[in-house]
Amino acid sequence: MSLRVVLAEGIAEGAAFRESLDALARDRVASRVFLQDATLWGPEAEAEASIRLGWTDFAGAAEQLIPAIEGLRSEFAAAGVDRIVLCGMGGSSLAPAVITRWAGVELTMLDTTHPAAVRRALEGDLARTAVVVSSKSGSTIETRSHLAAFEQAFRDAGIAPESRIVIVTDPDSPLDRDSRAAGRHVFNADPNVGGRFSALTAFGLVPSGLAGTDLAKLVGEAQGTREALARDAHDNPALVLAAAIASGLPERYVLAVRAGDDADWQLGAWIEQLIAESTGKDGRGVLPVSLTGTAPEFSDDAPVNVLGVLLSAGTASTPASGVAVSGGLGEQFLLWETATAALGRLMGIDPFNQPDVESAKVAARAALAEAASASETAAQQPNVPDYGSLLGELRSALPAGGYVVIQAFLDPGATHAASLRELRDRLASDLGAPVALGWGPSYLHSTGQLHKGGPAKGAYLQIVDAEPGSLAIPGSESGFDALIAAQARGDRDVLVERGRPVITVVCGDAEAELARLAAS
Q1: How far from each other are the two terminal CA atoms of the chain, in whole angstroms?
Q2: Which of 20, 55, 447, 508 could make an SS bond with 243 (beta carbons 3.0 to 4.6 A apart)?
Q3: What SUPFAM superfamilies does this protein's entry cite (predicted)?
């Protein structure tokens, strides 16, 4: 096992860390997690936990799943199909994005409802394309809309949709029933695993394997570390990591996560969802922010609410500050999942529910129902301020010891993505606060839970397109433009209702206006 968690001396020698680690070992938290003991998080969490610990027993299911995935991949290859598109949100998409980057294979991601991004995915070479549609509930509006669009595109191209569409969903979900009736390829996931803990289940493995990942290597890495992570010992890396994070709470609740050159897998984005959605509730929470090594959050005068985390594949050395985590990808998946479960125990929260995620979905449905045909955003006028004015607004809105989130309801594949990252760095430096960047609507399925249910420390900068372009959703009265506008409006309404400050910027020409903001 190459997995290691190494702490800076200031953390390792602290009384809060030692007390937390002692409590985890004394209460046998690690072994009880892997025995699927649902009582660990208290009586109120027991019912939910009893159906959410299947991730600890991943290897047996994977052993049966991998041959079926490889068989379908061979079938596709024989038909000349070598382009895999994944339609999924949150836990259904983040792990495959990391896995395929780790494996060096190509996977086209569609985790947005922005019309330009959807159109770009549809305009790829459909003769070479298979589409994986992943939804645990089987009713996710984004993925159902993607499915309808691809079915129509395949029909228009003279291709039988059922031959190219692969479904990953829970048994007997609406999508499962519909897909079996339609003759699509269907893989059922373990219903006793929540989306954010599903990296080593069908949700992580099916799209990654169809794209060409060596799944046996990934699962073998994770299985090789399982015994060590289940030990009730003070040197258990998962317990050390959980205790280190807990020791800084509630003041140091932001994890600034960066990867070394040998671990550039974008694992930080997956960690964001796992920890933020698991802990961000009841006015408490831990917010990971995935960053590059040059981000202001890693400077000598980093904000006091930040704990730095360095990820690497090789051997971790003792950091001057923060935490260093090293290990293979499979090892790190299981490490962070176990540490999150242990952290929930230390924080006194249920790490497996997400009570505030549904509120934004309800508000989005209401906004969509109110829209006639065009999106509300399309009716708005561009209002991009100069940088100084924007900085002043954010400074006034930012709570003491707080953070900022840029919520970009824009095309994530466009060139303005680089400008947004530059703007993020600039705001973090000038505000002296951590700044996260989330792409809407994808973040609604991950960190959005913490924005609404976590500590009231955030200020939210929502950036939307004045005219995202129109693209119909087959079988629906609304288009993708109306859908993404309703999702932005719905999240804004819920945040405002919760007393969270929201600043909305409407872009007419996002590429030019964001470049100006980042450089001015």
Answers
A1: 49
A2: 20
A3: SIS domain
